[in-house]
C-alpha cells in the first residue's frame, strides 16, 4: 500500500485528482466540481456528498465499487507503484562494474522515491545490505533522502541521474 500511496501522490502532484482517479478503474473519471464518474453505465448520478468514500488498493487486477446502507462507499482498485510493477531491467554492466552490481541496481531503482523496505522487496537483498548501499550512495551525493510520515524515502539526485543516464549507464 505504501508503494501505491507514493505513486498516487506523484500523480496528484503532476495532474491533480483527475490524474489519480482517471486510471484507477475502467470507466472511472474525475468530472470536476466534486463529481466522480465511477463507470460508463447511463444511470442517474447519486449525491454522496455526506457519505464516506474509501479507496482500497488490492493486488489482483479486477476493480469494483461497493457500498452499504449506512453511506459507506468504496472504490477497490489495482495497486500502482514500484512493488506492483514487473519487468524492470537489471542495472547495466558498465554501471555495475563501477559501483558493484547490487549497489548499481539500488541506484537504478531510485528513479522514483522508495523506502528501504521497498528496495529490500524489489532487490531481494537483506535490509543491512540495502542500508549499506544507501549510505554509500548518500555519502557520494548520488541519492538524497526525505521523510514522508513515518518512512524515509530515498531518491536519485541530479548527480545520480547523470550517472545512470551516461552511455552504458542504463537511462
Automatic annotation (TrEMBL):
It comes from the Bacteria. Residues 93-168 form the HTH arsR-type domain. Keywords: DNA-binding, Transcription, Transcription regulation. SMART domains: HTH_ARSR. InterPro entries: ArsR-like_HTH, HTH_ArsR_DNA-bd_dom, Metal_resp_trans_reg, WH-like_DNA-bd_sf, WH_DNA-bd_sf. SUPFAM superfamilies: Winged helix' DNA-binding domain. The keyword Translocase does not apply. This is HTH arsR-type domain-containing protein.
Amino acid at each position: 500500500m505504501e508503494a501505491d500511496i507514493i505513486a498516487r501522490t506523484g500523480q496528484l502532484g503532476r495532474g491533480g485528482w483527475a490524474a489519480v482517479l482517471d486510471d484507477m478503474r475502467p470507466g472511472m473519471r474525475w468530472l470536476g466540481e466534486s463529481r466522480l464518474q465511477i463507470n460508463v453505465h447511463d444511470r442517474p448520478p447519486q449525491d454522496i456528498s455526506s457519505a464516506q468514500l474509501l479507496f482500497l488498493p488490492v493486488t489482483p487486477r479486477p476493480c469494483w465499487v461497493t457500498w452499504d446502507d449506512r453511506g459507506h462507499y468504496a472504490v477497490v482498485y489495482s495497486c500502482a507503484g514500484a512493488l506492483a510493477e514487473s519487468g524492470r531491467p537489471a542495472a547495466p554492466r558498465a554501471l555495475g562494474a563501477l559501483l558493484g552490481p547490487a549497489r548499481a541496481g539500488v541506484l537504478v531503482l531510485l528513479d522514483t522515491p522508495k523506502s528501504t523496505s521497498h528496495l529490500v522487496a524489489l532487490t531481494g537483498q537483506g535490509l543491512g545490505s540495502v542500508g549499506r548501499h544507501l549510505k554509500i550512495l548518500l555519502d557520494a551525493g548520488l541519492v538524497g533522502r526525505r521523510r514522508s510520515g513515518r518512512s524515509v524515502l530515498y531518491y536519485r539526485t541530479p548527480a545520480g541521474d547523470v550517472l545512470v543516464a551516461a552511455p552504458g549507464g542504463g537511462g
